[in-house]
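Our preliminary data section would be incomplete without showing what the modeling component actually yields. Below, a chain of 99 amino acids is followed by its predicted structure, encoded as tokens that our downstream tools consume directly.
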Amino acid sequence: MIRIELPAHLRNLGRIDGELLLHVPSPVTQRTIVDAIEAQYPMLRGTIRDHVTKERRPFIRFFACEEDFSHEALDSPVPDEVASGKEPFLIVGAIAGGR
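Predicted structure:
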């Protein structure tokens, strides 16, 4: 069972209270995690990654074990702590700004 934390706007859209707990097939990767989210919560399709390219949306970031995995290959395995459910996989809405 994988633990996933989503930003508030995606939890609201998916009518999700708190942390997600999903079964994700091995090997557990960013792609298989997002596949599992979209299968269980079809209303979230296209919010985390592009419909066509399946790439992460620009203002979405992936974190695991306090490290940014946003620029890692989508098919790279996540850390064992995440795959075992010990640590959550965080999907975070990035904020941009400045002048």
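The chain has one domain: 2-93. The mean pLDDT is 92. Preliminary results of this kind motivate Aim 1 of the renewal.
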